[in-house]
Amino acid sequence: MEGNYIDKTRVLDIKPLRTLRPIFPSGNQAPPFVCAPPFGPFPAGFSPFYPFGSSQVNEQAPHLSQAQRQPQIPPQRQHQPQNLSEHSLATPSRPLRSSNGDIEPVESTLKRKTPKKRQLSTVNFESGISVAERDNGNRELVTSVLMRFDALRRRLAQLEDAEDAVNGIIKRPDLKAGSTCMSRGVRTNTKKRPGLVPGVEIGDIFFFRFEMCLVGLHSPSMAGIDYLVIKGGDAEEEPIATSIVSSAYTENDRVNPDVLIYTGQGGHADKDKEASDQKLERGNLALEKSLHRNSAVRVIRSLKEATHRVKIYVYDGIYEIKEAWIEKGKSGRDTFKYKLVRAPNQPPAFARWTEIQSWKTGKSQRRGLILPDLTSGVESVAVSLVNEVDSENGPPYFTYSTTVKYSMSFQLTQPSSGCGCSCGNKCKPGNLECPCIRKNGGEFPYTGNDILVSRKAMVYECSPSCPCLTCKSKVTQMGVKLRLEVFKTVDRGWGLRSWDPIRAGAFICVYAGEARDKSKVQQTMANDDFTFDTTRVYTPFKWNYEAGLADEEASEEVSEEPELPLPLIISAKNIGNVARFMNHSCSPNVFWQPVSYENNGQLYLHVAFFAVSHIPPMTELTYDYGVTRPSGAQNGNPVYGKKRCFCGTQYCRGSFGRSVEFLISGSDCFWFTDTMEGNFGSYTDKTRVLDIKPLRTLRPVFPSGNQAPPFVCAPPFGPFPPGFSPFYPFSSSQHTPDLNQAQNPPQHHNNNSEPSLVTPLRTFRSPNGDVEPSTVKRKITKKRTPLVCPENFSSGISVVDRENGNRKLVTSVVMRFDALRRRFSQLEDAKEAASGSIKRGDLKAGSTCMSRGVRTNTKKRPGVVPGVEIGDVFFFRFEMCLVGLHSPSMAGIDYLLVKGGGETGEEPIATSIVSSGYYDNDEGNPDVLVYTGQGGGNADKEKQTSDQKLERGNLALEKSLLRNSPVRVIRGLKEASQSAKIYVYDGLYEIKESWVEKGKLGHNTFKYKLVRAPGQPPAFASWIAIQKWKAGLPSREGLILPDLTSGVESIGVSLVNEVDAENGPPYFTYSTTVNYSESFKLSQPSVGCHCSNACKPGNLDCHCIRKNGGDFPYCGNGVLVSRKGMVHECSPSCPCSACKNKVTQMGVKVKLEVFKTVNRGWGLRSWDPIRAGSFICIYAGEAKDKSKVQQTMGDDDYTFDTTRVYTPFKWNYELGLADEDGSEEMSEEPELPLPLVISAKNAGNVARFMNHSCSPNVFWQPVSYEHNGQLYLHVAFFAMSHIPPMTELTYDYGVTRPSGTQNGNTLKATSSEQLEPDDYEWNRDLLNDDSFDLSLQQA
One biological-process term from Gene Ontology (predicted)? Predict the structure, then answer.
């Protein structure tokens, strides 16, 4: 530094932070401080306040020696509530006031009392915080201050929402609430200090900067750097930094969660000045001084969460400043940079947020994940099931439901008239003409961002039938909006927590289940631990705002105690939602609030859960279970439950739940388990209290797939093609299952120890099998005999596997279908099509597979389909039907009917939709789909001829919108490289809104806006990105060369590296052919064909077709039909110039990319989807003499050897499935007239970059053709199954068999030596060796 610099390390008498564990001074040992004022003017209507008032400006910095001689003040505890057994979580009781709490509707003449605005005064207000507590806080006091601030802020926000904003006034209730709390002493930790702040814990979250100011974590309400000025002896004073806020407005590096590159403050442009260099003053100077003094700095990270519309601040702990420098910013001006490193051994905070984001984006998988969505798609946001404690596979069986099921005895009579409001689209706060607002005492119960303002006896919400469709007074009816997780606790069974931060007053969920009659509870629910009882005794606590703090009169105080018109007891033992997993705590972070709304002439009561205070991510959510008060119990006496409490909090009562039938008076709290004479006479407790397991510790048992009720698939709309009759599941033999019968299904043996991926939601039923309504007549073509499964054919798929699939089974079903389809297409191509017949091999193959049980996931369900992954591609709609993704073979909307029993009736909910392009679907945004309903069109002309109706699929989408039920979306795409449409499974979507509008031809159409659920891997978005790459907007990230082949291939092959700085593979000559040496020239080749223009399938006079056994080897679209010993193609010299039997000679026809892998060198993948059986490329290079290979190719890793041993697999169609004679089954093993060894070390094509896999998606097939009197052999690669874009292409490299090895022995692969024939497994470790990777250029 310039000038004289005096190191005053003796000031705080603290040893350097990087050498020893820091020992920070207690609050009374630290020197007095001067708060750093906020930079910039205060908003309109706000004046400076303590500690920013003018009275503080002229104070001189205190002398250190004087500060050290200050008398020590012993810390004082905050006064406790009067009843220690009922400890308050928040603030002590004081005169308060909330809304008037009228439960009954009031007359239209009701006037809401608006408090008079007056100057802030502290004359009649007592904060309840002593001077000592204001200087030095504790955890309880910090929590209390934050809750009191937020309660006041919510009240002020409620008042501002109720009145029209005056032009020019800033609606910032947080600033007003903060200034009020500051001026009236509702704050703590005013004694500024470096290091730890008493009562503030690492990981605490704040939604407003004023909250950090009130608890002493960071004083400035706007500035990013907080500091204090110190001086020692006669030396000049200097600042040291105490805390910084890493906001998005500065260029902070967040790649490493434990390292922060912080940009200094100042130099930003404003209205009057341009950007300038930052200056070494104030906060910047304080950071520089802290660097030299090794003084620790508190770091608060600011984050922007998708679930919140405001910034969130996370206290990330203590950091050390390691270095500082100056560099040019984006504006070209000098900026100060500071590198801060997090001190070790601190609990995770920001690092945990980073980890959660990686879980949501799919970059890393949640450790211990059992199910990605416990709700099976019922909730709009998935609820994960996780166990990181033991091997338990899940909680006990229950049916997931989002509502309360009322029995007949709970049907309420004489409900009020409902909302009946004329508010239009939504109710407006302050509108006393709205009956719903009047029922809430004239005030809107929620703020504009859906936060509950106050606890009250009852919250009245608008009805689902109210005209205010987008009203903010339906918060609890919108379902779960947080990313929750059910997890296994260490000692309390299963619990609930959130991946998202939760704001104080935010809605979490309702308690769903079955409502019970109070008079029958004792007999039917003795062993029901999943019970919520509103009649229990709950510990009272204060949560609402303080009337005195809000300058309101406290004369009409409203109780926060719930008041229900009748006892409400809900059992979630058999039916429930995530609320059943919330554990008990005597100091909970969640509270319950009764909520009611009216619908269809009935009044519905619910128990809704809201956050007591701000809850950081991954914090267990708990509420007070309460205790059942025995008959005759006196108020004021503590009541103890039979369940032992494991919450471990400071104010733990020791028990909860159903009460012990006696009272314990005084402070002697002990357990009695034998007969006792008490206030209620003789009582015998047969249960030893301490031996009872906690509420959620019983072993969960998920139902196996065969326990779910039967289903009927939604039929396709429109007639079946000629020659095809309806088949299962579209036949009329299915009936609608009854609710009671469905609960006792026949038992099947299931040896699968893993839990079902889908929790049964409820008893389902589908349409009754009628393809069209009975009033609709259609032309039925001549029916042929339905396909009947032969007695000797077995699908090989068990009943359990047919109902619930997995990845392997889904892949197998699709491959078996496509193999059969290729065979049918081959046969149809070989014969002249009869007049009027439809050549649809896919329909014939699909109906055959359906009737013969080659299918899976027949148990229809919403949400995730087992074994089907997001991004999977399908070339035929029947493929989606066979794997249970989308049942109708033609209709765009699949749905099922939900039957709930009683008088509730049934209604459809959509399970999946296909955005096919036949309707006007807006697909501009990859995560948003504006879907057009079905119907009203002409099936032949594909035009809309009439209005669409709200029935079938359209009605199902509408009901799914109201139920917040997710829908699977399949995108139909038209690829230039494919002749047919492709279907891409894009994951789960949420229906956000619906409306009716005029179509292009003037008819009414239904529109549905669907938004993709977050945290899913990209699918359709990847296709959009690829299309932009192809168009050059934008350029492919990591692109090294646009065409590695330099124009040799007709379609360019990109070279991409997104991993490191390597600029490409070693040099080689790009070639598209096999270069044969002299010794490989073959004599006496056979003659070619004499077909004109093109060889015709079925023409046995064609010499080339006869060589292929009489069958054309390819379908009409160039897809290989079957693997065989050798495929014989037509010669380039044959007269059939446009022949389809020259597929491998046409070169690469897909857009390929050579890319750098993470751990396997260079690899190959495609921008285009690749169809099963499609040709990819040949293995080009130099053909070698097998006898010379050992001497010349010892170090050649780019070798393809047809003599190696390859893992056998089945790819061809099944003769029994195709009704063909199986006596002469074709061998799939390659047969070559001589050994073929090809080296691509010096010359080759893209095939040299394909890596090995034990489960490949590409296979090789020998192909030959004749030219100029010579026979040419090639190794051609074909797709084993459908391959989505950007999927790495791999094949089996095989293993060289040593001499003397017996057939049947499995070999190990090694880099340079051969193993003994007794080795009976692949050496997986050696497969990862560089020498076994074709993508590496040097041995």
Answer: methylation
Nearest of 627, 623, 544 to residue 85 by alpha carbon: 627
Distance CA 795, CA 1216 (A): 10
**pLDDT class of 660 with cuts at 50, 70, 90:** very low
Mean pLDDT of 111-139: 70
Identity at 394, one-letter amino acid code: G
Q: Does 81 sit behind a cis peptide bond, omega within 30 degrees of 0 on the bond before it?
A: no
Cα(375)–Cα(1290) distance, integer angstroms: 36
The pLDDT value given to residue 169:
56
Share of the chain above pLDDT 90, in %: 39
Mean pLDDT across the chain: 74
- DSSP character for 298? E
Residue 1321 DSSP symbol: S
The pLDDT assigned to 1315 comes to: 33
* pTM given for the model: 0.48
Would you put residue 1125 in left (φ > 0), alpha (ψ -120 to 50) or beta? alpha
Provide the 8-state DSSP code for 1184. Answer: E
Question: How far apart are the C-alpha atoms of 1295 and 316, rounded to whole Å?
Answer: 54
* 8 Å CB contact between 612 and 89: yes
| Ranges of H-type helices in 170-281 | 173-183, 209-214
Main-chain dihedrals φ then ψ at residue 359, nearest 5 degrees:
-65, -45
Percent of the chain whose predicted confidence (pLDDT) is above 70: 66
CB 1037 within 8 Å of CB 1136: no
- Cα-based distances in Å from 684 to 656, 660, 863: 19, 10, 50
- List strands edge to edge, sheet with 1270-1279: 1127-1128, 1258-1267, 1270-1279, 1175-1178
Q: In what order do the strands lie in the sheet with 484-488?
A: 369-371, 384-386, 484-488, 494-498
Relative orientation angle of helices 139-162 and 173-183, to the nearest 10 degrees? 130
Task: List alpha helices for 170-321, DSSP H.
Answer: 173-183, 209-214, 282-293
DSSP, collapsed to helix, strand or coil, labels residue 801 as helix
Contact yes or no for 265/223 (Cβ under 8 A): yes
| Nearest alpha carbon to residue 930 among 957, 956, 911 | 957
pLDDT greater than 70 at residue 1189: no
CA atoms of 464 and 471, how far apart (whole Å):
10
β 399-400/311-328 pair status: unpaired
In the beta sheet, which residues pair with residue 460? 596
Residue 815: which residues within 8 A CB-CB, separation 6 or more? 1172, 1211, 1280, 1281
Indicate the SS3 state at residue 460.
strand
> Whose CA is closest to 969, among 918, 925, 914?
914
Distance CA 1063, CA 1052 (A): 18
Q: Quote helix, strand, coil % in the chain, to nearest 5.
A: 15, 20, 65
432 pLDDT exceeds 60? Answer: yes
Task: Measure Cα distances from 495 to 378, 385, 587, 632, 695 in Å.
Answer: 20, 10, 16, 34, 10
DSSP three-state, residue 1066: coil
Residues 507 and 608 sit within 8 Å (Cβ to Cβ): yes
What DSSP designation does 333 have? S
Q: Give me the pLDDT at residue 1246, please.
A: 95
Structure tokens at 313: 């601040």
**800 is written with which tokens?**
């359990």
Alpha-carbon gap, residue 718 to 952, rounded angstroms: 13
Distance CA 643, CA 689 (A): 6
pLDDT of residue 85: 36
